[in-house]
Amino acid sequence: MLTLLQTLVDIIGLRKGPDAIPHSMALFVIVVGFWLFVDLLGELLIPDLGTTSISGLIVSLIGLVLFAVIVALDRKNERLLQMMTALIGCGAVLGLVLTIVIAVMLRFQEFSAVAVLGLMTVWVITLFSIVVDGHILSRTLERPRLYGVILAFLVFALQYYLSTAMNPAQTTAA
Fold first, then answer.
1. Among residues 127, 129, 107, which one has the least CA distance to residue 118?
2. For residue 98, what are the CA distances in angstroms to 48, 50, 125, 141?
3. What pLDDT, on the 0 to 100 scale, is given for residue 27?
4. C-beta of residue 149 within 8 angstroms of C-beta of residue 134
5. So what's the pLDDT on residue 169?
6. Which pTM was predicted?
7. Do 164 and 57 touch, CB atoms closer than 8 A?
8. C-beta of residue 126 within 8 angstroms of C-beta of residue 103
């Protein structure tokens, strides 16, 4: 399990690609379980996010389907399981970091410096996750990283639009 976590951290650090993850359905199921655990942990630590969890899960699944379609259109289907394992695993690791940052930020929100630093950290992690997704996609497709990042950004933009459309009260509160 530590080897998997180290591999995911190496992928997040852009040192490895999804090809470093074994082609294994059992590993995929473990990573999905970890992803769901992080989502549940987020609901427990940050109750305000609980109302958007189902819509967030739907938006995430739409993003994964779009990535799968991109891979299928490029005829790299044999790499699909590794890519999905990497996307979900890296998303879970980054989601865990975001959950911790937001929980700390909410706990110490009376200190404006903590709130500002926390908000900046959330944005940096969110934007960097697009780069990580693009890196994973580009390594899967054997294309330049910029190609993958542009496609990942387009998927993120669609996900953001869908998220705001599904939760209009959340965007007006911000």
1. 107
2. 14, 15, 7, 28
3. 96
4. yes
5. 61
6. 0.88
7. no
8. no
C-alpha span between 38 and 131 (Å, rounded):
21
Please count the other Cβ atoms lying within 10 Å of the Cβ belonging to residue 129.
Answer: 21
Query: Tokens in use for 73?
Result: 């259109």
CB atoms within 10 A of CB 13: 10
Q: Which residue shows structure tokens 């090809």?
A: 19
Task: In whole angstroms, give the CA distance from residue 33 to residue 42.
Answer: 14
148 pLDDT higher than 50:
yes
Question: Can you tell me the mean pLDDT for 69-80?
Answer: 95
Across 57-162, the runs of DSSP E, i.e. the strands, are none
Residue 145's pLDDT is 96
Give the total residue count for the chain: 174
Instruction: Give pLDDT, residue 51.
Output: 47
Q: Which helix (H) or strand (E) holds 119?
A: helix 112-141
Instruction: With a cut of 60, say whether residue 93 has pLDDT above it.
Output: yes
